[in-house]
């Protein structure tokens, strides 16, 4: 079992990723930290509680982190995720959850070298502001992170919020740049689950209908939170289905054979029209050691088999 902290901004597909992570026996979710991104941090907190309640896992600690990016104005993605950040499902609020620490305090406690708790990884499903704040105070904390999987960036694919940038890295490019630079300094590799692979993971109406047939309650829940996302994808790009980015990062973490790619030195542009773009030195121009594993290939059928079977199995238990 691999221990992990999930840093996220729920968000429709973050919520699916959390449901999946909590259903996988390979993963032990130690804590969930919230960052502003798709939703403002307080909304991300409230949505995380809703998901944990649905999964019967309110025992997992949630720590709320950054309410704005490192250096710029915060731009949410509620146009994509709905007014409540959860596809306008308007699930009831879950009251009475005490936060003992902020995300910053928790991450420091968990990852500053010399702390107890054994190896633990990070899966980052939103802008990397929380991680960057930790690493700017204590860069060597990166050495205590067993693996770092990040949903973000794109290599050959176009962006999803500018011609070249993916939202998580666009929203806080300074944070993404700092995390990649710190990885380079300390010889770590960020496992970049970017749009090249995540855009292949399309939840279609057929798949959703089948999930409903297999388990009407689970199917209806997924349907309630993804309806808005389906409509967004249709209106924006006439896609019949919705791209669920974040769950792939979770599956890649548990099953590294699902995606393939290559290692390369990677930096993130912070300024101008290419703000948030991942500059992947696949040809080795910079002659720098790789600080990233860039995933470019995946198997959507295998992903959905695993996604469905784990969620269903967890409900049987
Ligand atoms: C990222 O932004 C959101 O739409 C998803 O939650 C994902 O983390 C993709 O650009
Ligand atoms: Ca996300």
Automatic annotation (TrEMBL):
Residues 4-304 form the Inosine/uridine-preferring nucleoside hydrolase domain. This is Nucleoside hydrolase. It comes from Enterocloster hominis. Gene3D superfamilies: Ribonucleoside hydrolase-like. It holds the Pfam family IU_nuc_hydro. GO terms for molecular function: hydrolase activity. InterPro entries: Inosine/uridine_hydrolase_dom (IPR001910), IUNH (IPR023186), Ribo_hydro-like (IPR036452). Keywords: Glycosidase, Hydrolase.
